[in-house]
Protein: Signal peptidase complex subunit 2
Amino acid sequence: MEAKKGEIASNKNAKKANLLDHHSIKHILDESVTEIVKGKGYPEDVSMSNIRLLIGTIIIIIALFAQFYNKKFPENRNFLIGCIILYIVFNGILQLIIYTKEKNAILFTYPPTGSFHTTGLVITSKLPRFSDMYTLIIASADPESISAKPPVEFTKSVTQWFTKEGVLVEGLFWKDVENLINKYAEETKKSK
Structure:
């Protein structure tokens, strides 16, 4: 009876994915990577997310002004044209930030506390459609920095980390990710 309670408790904490949905698999793996990197002492840098939220809020405010402006249509034509132009411009800025800065990044970090590095990490992942090969890349958040190191990556089949029922075998995955983080740290020591 006690063993069954332990199994039930561990099953509730288990991360389960639909093996037929690559978005579900990638989401669980990315979520686990975030936990691992934060657990290694890298605080999350949410400034990029905050900038995106600010621009999104501005876009919503512009849309609300256009919708609820006091005057009716023929009289507010110029105001609506201005709102439409601003809406397009801010959406373009938002898309430009996402395309140039974020790309496939799942996590931006600051340097670890007490570290001499001046740059954090950018963690990027890829799981192409109709493929089981998951790629994880760790790179410097500021590649132009003096303390920037070459990126490290691994590509492995997701079938190594999931059971037939779709439960993530966290121990194996954590080991692979921690090895990659350690490899990045070693690259840092080698390049000095």
Summary: Helices lie at 2-13, 22-39, 47-68, 77-102, 170-190. The CA atoms of residues 5 and 117 lie 46 Å apart. The mean pLDDT is 80.
